[in-house]
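Problem 12. The chain below contains 414 residues. Write out its predicted structure in token notation.
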Amino acid sequence: MIRSAEDDQRIVITGIGLTAPNGDTLADYRAALLAGRSGVEPYTIRYVGDTLAGVCHYDELKYQNRRDVRRGTRAGSIGIYCAREAVADSGVDWDRINPETVGVYVGVTEHGNVETENEIYEITQFNYDTKVWSHHHNPRTVANNPAGEITLNMGITGPHYTIGAACAAGNAGLIQGAQMLLLHECDFAIAGGVSESIRTFGIFAGFASQGALAAHADPAKASRPFDRGRNGIVVSEGGCLYALERYSDAARRGAKIYGELVGYSMTSDATDFVLPNPVQQSRCMEQALRRAGLNAEDVDVLSTHATATPSGDVQECQAIRRVFGGSNRTRINNTKSFIGHAMGAAGSLELAGNLPAFDDGVCHATINVDDLDPECALPGLVLNEPQETAGVNYILNNSFGMLGINSAVIIKRV
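Solution.
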């Protein structure tokens, strides 16, 4: 096989490891998306009480023993599971990989709240005696924890860090991994996002105080982006990490390739703590398209960020109209309708759910849209039932977050 110098500047996905509320492997997750199967369920958490959440049910002892699980964090455990699964899926001979050449880049929305809340609750049971405060608290709450736990578990001695990018973090982790490969700071990257958000009552209480926490008699129908009756976010946990390599290395070992990262962008709104800015969101998509050398009509599937908040969904739809106009060639869908909002893992999980479309040519639907909000009515929006296409060559994945952080990635079929 003849390879050019350009092959060294191409970044490809060779492995996927994930856990979602409706599946713990890519095959099971994809099957759930095509079947319209939700992963949202009743959930009870301290102080908030009965609510709804997307809960993962992966085998946390598959790659850790009970002592390690107790000592570490839920985000770290999810990260370890996803990282190990991604490496196994990549088919790389892990025993022959130099651990110094592996980088770990994990996006998170927040980290440490769960552990600190638990410790504060514990000392309230002992008259605030700090002697009962766990000596594990500090390593559990440092910002690099989820990525660091992965390196400890897997013996990785290359660079690692977590990327705090609110709910754009899943895309941000992927982008960071690609950039480090391009800089030759590593030769194999484990990158994406994780979330333990359902373990902190503060997230639920915060959304409730904003009037942005979803409620519905049927948990499976609670997350309903674009529907006129949407009433807020379903908080979820989860993770999705990718094995990333330079195309030259992947081709040399004959690796299967899920897709190539050909475009990406991150921008800032600089306008509001919470409310998104559709002008800046559209600029983010446009920059990703320019980097990929594409026009909007080249995109076959657009995966939306829409969280099912009344204003947020409308503003993203405004941004999409600015870029994609009135064309219905691009299919548009949403994954949060199935799993809720997995925060730091949202972007990477939502991208993963669409990648099999390169092979099967099917765009999964947005479910729970019984009464489409006219302000969210986009040409190409796939509702309630999957849609077959003439073929998928490019997928654009949106992921936005608080403090006005925007991200978009474009993956090409190889």
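Discussion. The chain has two domains: 11-252, 264-412. Students who got a different answer should revisit the alignment rule from Section 12.3.
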